[in-house]
Amino acid sequence: MSTQLQRSEQETDESPQEQRLERKRFDESEREAQRTEEESTGDETPYVHLKVFRYDPEVEGKREPHFDDFRVPAPQGTTVLDALMYARDEFDSTLTFRHSCRQAVCGSDALFINGSQRLGCQTQIQDLDQRPVRVEPLPHQEVEKDLVVDMEHFYDQMEAVEPYFQGETPDEEEQLQSRENREKVKMSTRCIWCGACQSSCNIAAGDNEYLGPAAINKAYRFAMDEREDDDIKQHRMNILEQEHGVWRCQTQFSCTEVCPKDIPLTEHIQEMKREAVKDNLKFW
């Protein structure tokens, strides 16, 4: 109990009940003062408390995973990536994380923020209710250092579906695409290879050979393109129909929920399942 509260109780003849009420009011004011102190300074600049995952296998004393605390300024418009960059530049230059364009295009700064896969550059501090803001590397992937994870397996899964157009190119004719077909594949083209969906998928976490939602979405983008040859589409379907392809999806929608580009990943996976069924039901 603080000295101030002890003195107030000694100088009054309040009943025990009144003293308890007074203590409750005092505790509430103390908590409010602490919250205000955490969020602002004398110049009324708002601050935020970051709790950041740390790990460095090459440095003695940092090989055990732990969390470090940073208190950084967070005026309106500050993103989690902005806060991390401030912490790195002002407090600890060894803090390691990926970032590039800062416009939600490169996909390099996917993180696990307050228990959800998000892009650091797209996540506004003021939109996060939980304090302190907890920042961790993407789950279900090997951590290399601090917030950096090994993306090699993710890239291998993406390459496995041959994510490029393979239609026959006429010598002198432009390959036209109808408006309807463009609308059909439009959302699937927005993928930025951030890996957030793969990290959120429980099936991918338990089955290292599962292609994953990002790779299947990329296959959807080309398989459903009317300009691709039938033989090539059949080749893609053969890839998706294998044991660790579309049939491993259990329709949990976790990938769709965390996608920073709002791609209906689960819907695309289900459509590829329907295509696989139709392909196997042909009688001619």
Strand order of the largest sheet: 2-1-5-3-4
Let me know the CATH homologous superfamily of the largest domain. Alpha-helical ferredoxin
Low-confidence stretches: 1-12, 36-41
**CATH fold title of the largest domain:** Fumarate Reductase Iron-sulfur Protein, Chain B, domain 2
Integer tally of domains:
2
- SS-based class: alpha+beta
- Give the CA-based shape: elongated
Helix amount: 25-40%
Q: What is the architecture of the largest domain at the second tier of CATH?
A: Orthogonal Bundle
Give the termini distance in whole angstroms: 85 Å
Q: What is the ordering of alpha helices and beta strands?
A: HHEEHEEEEEHHHHHHHH
Biggest sheet layout:
5 strands, mixed
CATH class of the largest domain: Mainly Alpha
Strand segment tally = 7
Provide the gyration radius in Å: 26 Å
Q: Enumerate how many helices there are, as a single number.
A: 11
Beta-strand portion reads: 5-15%
Return the average pLDDT rounded to an integer: 86
InterPro entries: 2Fe-2S_ferredoxin-like_sf, 2Fe-2S_ferredoxin-type, 4Fe4S_Fe-S-bd, Beta-grasp_dom_sf, Helical_ferredxn, SDH/FRD_Iron-Sulfur, Succ_DH/fum_Rdtase_Fe-S, Succ_DH/fum_Rdtase_N
Domain Succinate dehydogenase/fumarate reductase N-terminal: 49-155
Pathway: Carbohydrate metabolism; tricarboxylic acid cycle
Organism: Halococcus thailandensis JCM 13552
What does this molecule look like?
The chain is an alpha+beta fold. The chain has two domains: 46-149, Beta-grasp domain (Ubiquitin-like (UB roll)), CATH 3.10.20; 151-164 and 179-283, Orthogonal Bundle (Fumarate Reductase Iron-sulfur Protein, Chain B, domain 2), CATH 1.10.1060.10. Helix content is 40%, strand content 12%. It contains eleven helices and seven strands. The chain has a five-stranded mixed β-sheet. Strands 6-7 form a two-stranded antiparallel sheet. A hairpin with a 2-residue loop joins β6 and β7 (148-149). The longest helix has 24 residues, at 16-39. The chain is elongated. Mean pLDDT is 86; it is low at 1-12 and 36-41.
